[in-house]
Amino acid sequence: MGNIERKVLIMLKIAIILGSTRPGRAGEAVAKWVYEIAQKRGNAEYELIDVKDSNLPLLDEAVPPSQGKYSQPHTKAWAAKIETFDAFVFVTAEYNHGIPGALKNAIDFLYKEWNNKAAGFVSYGSAGGARAVEQLRLVMAELQIADVRAQVMLSLFTDFENFSVFKPAAFHEKSVNVMLDQVIAWGRVLKVLREK
Ligand SMILES: Cc1cc2nc3c(=O)[nH]c(=O)nc-3n(C[C@H](O)[C@H](O)[C@H](O)COP(=O)(O)O)c2cc1C
Known about the structure:
By secondary structure, this protein is an alpha/beta fold. The chain contains six helices and seven strands; from the N terminus they run H-E-H-E-H-E-H-E-H-E-E-E-H. Strands 2-1-3-4-5 form a five-stranded parallel β-sheet, with helices on both faces. Strands 6-7 form a two-stranded antiparallel ribbon. Helix 2 packs across helix 6 (172-195).
């Protein structure tokens, strides 16, 4: 077995990042559901990362993050955490046809810790959060994150009771697995690229 083949068999570390922070958010149940489905697979290590727990203020770094000169303890802690992952699953709400400001802020804090990694999306909203994810895909390109095609779109009308209690239709579980298959495939190849 060559070096490259050996490296691609390494277990990936994948962060499931919950991007909404408001009290009573639907996102918490969605992120836990994704985490539980992912855990059953056993072919990667998963960790639930709640943007709310990172306690990041609005971006307060003087130097653009792409230069990697972080000054604040909260930035250094966030960078150290994100650095450890090979791939990401962003769980995002749709706010005014975009992603929650807290998620964008948390993304903007860092740069190289995101680069050359893979990502997939789970979104929810009246139109499945589709517009938020389209916006997020543009952001991914600038961060050199390879975002996979498969996407899990949950409807506020049919996957939530009274637009708040999460009761996902059974078929979404398969969509989560298809999305994770793609994230793992690209995540493995990009891990090799980073190690070169
Ligand atoms: C500020 C705000 C803006 C919203 N804008 C949209 C929207 O553009 N499209 C949509 O489908 N839902 C929109 N919604 C409804 C959200 O999809 C719904 O409240 C969802 O539960 C939000 O996710 P969260 O509970 O995790 O915060 C909006 C909600 C908020 C709080």
